[in-house]
Design a protein that fits this description.
Layout lengths: L2 H19 L4 H8 L3 H4 L1 H21 L4 H21 L3 H30 L4 H29 L2 H22 L16 H4 L7 H22 L1 H6 L8 H48 L4 H30 L7 H27 L4 H20 L6 H7 L5
Helix pairs in contact: 1-6, 1-7, 1-8, 4-6, 4-14, 5-6, 5-8, 6-7, 6-14, 7-8, 7-12, 7-13, 10-13, 10-14, 10-15, 12-13, 12-15, 13-14, 14-15
Length: about 400
């Protein structure tokens, strides 16, 4: 595996830390800049919106540029946004830095994922994608808790400075290690007017299926993960020390799942997605049924993290490889957008159910329903289309 892939993973680690650590710093930020806690919550919701909108927009804007220029620029802008955020005392400015950081993050990830076939070869895209995505899982294990601790022990600004330092330190290696000839997709740029036409790839059954399944699987993942701490805190047999432990177990499971599936997804991608989505229904169901006891929560946090992120990372690879032949410059944007739509949709859906019932564990039932929908889509996609000729043209949606 080329070293540049691990450098990209370091950058994604910094970005993942930034995306999730703010939830643990909201109270301190609200007090420091003089806003309500609810208003401070805009820092997380606008970041998510910036990620969803930024991926396709930045992929189109940067699709004409060499990969090394675009991703190094995105990473430098991400770093600068955190420097400004760390020194400002104005909430409006801080809010704008989160939007800028989210757009830069989305652009970096979209271009980097789309460039992987050129960086590592088509036979290793699955493994390389798992390495890059592992940056997010390591952020969940180490980066987010560390950032939260830095903010709580010293000052929330220190956490922002830490993210700026890590991301800034990766800019030069990214610039130096990404080949000058690197491009997005497996073929050269195909003309400016064709860039908009690449979006027609969403009309192809295999691509649309992969995107929809990725949205549903990631929605289930983040529906459960968002309320995992509250579920643990509500157990009579657990004290507050178990909350970070259970969250860390989820992160450890996620890392294992991404790593294991990544090593096999290039040869067994279809099987991982098909069996994995069906298996996830049982995983989230079992998690919901055992959520009343601490051992059940701890064990299922690890298992659900492993299976959910293993399948989720494989779906990212599936989107990139399925869309790249017809849409080389937006394939990574499609994967990034699907991931983040799920990350926003899942917690929102679960929050409605939890608020209505007053029981955080109901979020795990949301995960069950969402993965059941994903498994249904996978099963339906494997049914023959209208005619044999159309079936031959479409191919297997998950190949």
């Amino acid at each position: 595996m080329p070293i540049v892939v691990f450098v990209l993973a370091v950058a994604v680690f910094a970005q993942g830390t930034s995306e999730f650590m703010v939830s643990g710093l909201l109270e301190a930020i609200a007090v420091d800049v003089g806003v309500t806690l609810g208003t401070a919550g805009l820092l997380t919701s606008l970041f998510a919106a910036g990620m969803v909108l930024g991926a396709p927009v930045m992929a189109m804007a940067a699709g004409r540029l060499p990969v090394r220029h675009s991703i190094a620029t995105f990473l430098a802008v991400f770093c600068a946004a955190h420097v400004v955020g760390a020194v400002t005392s104005e909430f409006t400015v801080l809010l704008m830095t989160r939007v800028v950081a989210a757009v830069a993050n989305a652009g970096f990830l979209a271009i980097a994922l789309a460039a992987l076939p050129h960086l590592v070869g088509s036979s290793m895209v699955g493994h390389a994608t798992s390495v890059v995505v592992s940056g997010v899982t390591v952020a969940c294990i180490a980066g987010v808790p560390a950032g939260t601790v830095l903010g709580q022990v010293w000052d929330w600004r220190i956490a922002f400075w830490a993210v700026a330092i890590v991301s800034g330190a990766a800019v030069i290696p990214v610039w130096a290690m990404v080949p000058r000839t690197a491009r997005t997709g497996d073929r050269p740029a195909i003309g400016e007017s064709s860039l908009l036409r690449e979006w027609a790839v969403l009309g192809e059954r295999p691509v649309l299926t992969s995107v929809l399944v990725a949205v549903l699987v990631n929605a289930a993942t983040f529906a459960g993960f968002t309320f995992l701490g509250s579920i643990t805190a509500g157990l009579s047999t657990a004290d507050s020390r178990w909350v970070p432990i259970v969250l860390a177990l989820f992160g450890i499971g996620s890392f294992v799942g991404v790593t294991v599936c990544g090593r096999h997804s290039d040869r067994h991608r279809e099987r991982i997605v098909t069996v994995g989505t069906s298996g996830l229904v049982g995983v989230w169901l079992l998690a919901a049924l055992t959520a009343h006891v601490l051992p059940g929560v701890a064990i299922m946090a690890t298992v659900s993290g492993a299976v959910a992120f293993g399948v989720g990372s494989t779906l990212i690879t599936t989107i990139v490889q399925t869309a790249a032949p017809a849409a080389p410059r937006i394939a990574g944007a499609l994967a990034t957008t699907a991931f983040n739509i799920g990350a926003a949709l899942g917690p929102l859906t679960a929050a409605v159910v939890v608020d209505h019932t007053g029981q955080p564990a109901k979020a795990l039932w949301c995960g069950t329903v969402l993965t059941l929908a994903a498994a249904t889509v996978v099963r339906a996609a494997r049914q023959p289309v209208a005619s044999p000729a159309a079936t031959a043209a479409a191919g297997d949606p998950l190949e």
